[in-house]
Amino acid sequence: MFFHHYFRQDGIAPNFTQKPVIQQVDGGKKLLVECQLTADPEPSITWFRDGTQITAGGKIQMRAELKSPKNYLIVLEITDVSPQDAGSYKVTAKNALGESNATIGLNFDAGDANKPKGSKPLFTQKPVIRQVEDKIIFECILTADPVPTITWMQGNKVITGGPKYKMTDVADKTSHTITLEISNVGASDGGEYKAIAKNSLGESTATITLNLEGKKPK
C-alpha cells in the first residue's frame, strides 16, 4: 500500500502555460476563450463568470483537447455573443495533485478585452450662462465614468468655495450637470473661465467667456 500510494503522486499538478486569449470567429458572432495548461492526470475543468459557475448548454460550450502528452487546450465557446456576456471569466483546473486558476476580462469597448471600462469626461453641450439678479450662473453638461473631479478656474486662478462662489455637480448615472454660481458680480469677475473635468481615463475642459459690458453676459 505504501508504494502504491507513493507512485500515485507521480504526476503534474495543473499549471497554465499561457494566459487566456479571446478569439472572434464567424464575423464576431462567436467568441472562443482559450488557454493552455499541463496536467497529469487529466484535470477537471470548471468555468466561472463574475464568480458564478457556468454550465454547458445553449450558447455555451466547453471542451478540453489533449494536444500532446500532458498538454491540454482548454476552450470556452460562446455563440450569439451580446454585451450581456461581458464580465470576468475564470477557469479552474484541478486534479489529485492540486489546482490552478486563470482569469480574463471580456468587454466590448473597441474590441479590446483588457481596456478599462468607462469613459473619459466629455462635455456634450455648449456651456450656458444665466443671470439671476446679481448672480451669474455657469452651467455645463458632461458625461464621465468613473465620477470626475471638477475644477473651476478664472484665468489661471483656481476658484475655491466661499460666500462668493457656489459649485454643484448633479449626477444621473454617467451624466453630470455642473454649475458655478457667482454672487455679487462686479467688473473684476469678467474674463475667461474654465471647467476642468478629470477622471482616471482622461480629462476635458470647457471654456466660458464672461463679458460684463452693458451689465449683460454674452
TrEMBL record:
It comes from Sinanodonta woodiana (Chinese pond mussel). The lineage of its organism: Eukaryota, Metazoa, Spiralia, Lophotrochozoa, Mollusca. SMART domains: IG, IGc2. This is Ig-like domain-containing protein. Transmembrane segments: none annotated. Pfam families: I-set. Residues 14-105, 121-209 form the Ig-like domain.
